[in-house]
Write a structure and sequence with these properties.
By secondary structure, the chain is an alpha/beta fold. The chain is built from twelve helices and nine strands. Helix 1 crosses helix 6. The termini are far apart.
């Protein structure tokens, strides 16, 4: 059954080049996704929260259950890691090997779809989800950041475009050439580029306008860079992973760290603690619903 769904997605992607409306009916607009898209495309809008590897405090990371957890915690985006199996099926897993997160061992991308389906995620009873399963699960509920752990973007785009969900996902890769090649196949695909200290932003974003979001950090988000991104305009994605996430339970230490991150221009914050981050934004007087 799943192979038939995958074939249908690929065929829809091919037909949608000539007739984009063919892909539209599967995942139509919902009030929830419309509100999220409006916020996403307003660079001065409220701070948005991205849940790292789904919501994995109680669920296996990068699982369908992790998406449910993230949505229940009020996440605006779920960040998921995309790889492609040996026989061309996009699946969701962060690590290069399956050892840490499943009951198996070996390199995931060396495995076939059938071999991946035989695995079970630790802490659960399901196999690593495919991208098709994942997007069918997020459809209309939450925005998706596709963190590309592969340069095999064509099978990924076949699924995204086949489901008619290019407006609900964003592709991220630190290598802008991967994003440029992906855009050649899917011109409307939203992308997020990664700032690098030794590479001009103009080069990172070359031939990619419009860039939906720019990913930066304390080292790269200088005042000049923050101003340049505001002029584009685009949102700034930054991580609270690590020390800030650990401090979210304490206002005395979390508020200064959070204010510093927002001072760098961050308007999308990726976290392992989406519910706690939302509460801390409010407690620190930064809201979560007000425009920046």
């Amino acid at each position: 059954m799943f192979r038939n769904l995958l074939k249908s997605a690929v065929l829809l992607a091919l037909f949608s080049v000539a007739s984009p409306s063919l892909a539209a009916p599967f995942c139509g607009e919902t009030p929830q996704i419309a509100a999220l898209q409006e916020a996403w495309h307003d660079p001065t809008g409220r701070v948005m929260i991205a849940s790292h590897r789904g919501g994995h405090l109680r669920s296996p990371e990068n699982s369908l259950a992790a998406v449910d957890e993230a949505v229940a915690a009020g996440a605006d985006f779920v960040e998921i890691d995309v790889r492609v199996s040996r026989d061309g099926v996009p699946f969701i897993m962060h690590d290069g090997t399956v050892d840490r997160t499943t009951d198996g061992s070996g390199k995931g991308e060396d495995m076939t779809f059938a071999q991946l389906r035989a695995l079970r995620l630790k802490g659960g009873d399901t196999p690593p989800p495919t991208l098709l399963e994942m997007l069918m699960h997020t459809c209309g509920r939450v925005l998706v950041d596709l963190d590309m752990k592969t340069d095999r973007f064509a099978p990924v785009l076949a699924v995204v475009d086949g489901l008619g969900m290019a407006d609900q996902v964003m592709m991220f890769d630190s290598d802008s050439d991967v994003l440029r090649n992906a855009r050649a196949l899917s011109p409307a695909l939203p992308v997020m580029t990664r700032l690098q200290k030794d590479v001009p932003m103009a080069e990172k974003n070359r031939a990619l306008a419009p860039v939906a979001i720019v990913h930066g950090d304390e080292e790269t988000l200088t005042p000049a860079m923050k101003a340049a991104i505001a002029d584009m305009p685009a949102r700034i994605w930054a991580n609270s992973l690590g020390d800030l996430d650990k401090d979210l339970g304490s206002g005395a230490t979390a508020c200064p760290r959070l204010k510093s991150l927002l001072g760098q221009g961050a308007s999308v914050i990726q976290t392992d603690q989406p519910r706690l981050l939302r509460a801390r934004l409010s407690a620190c007087g930064e809201g979560g619903d007000e425009k920046r």
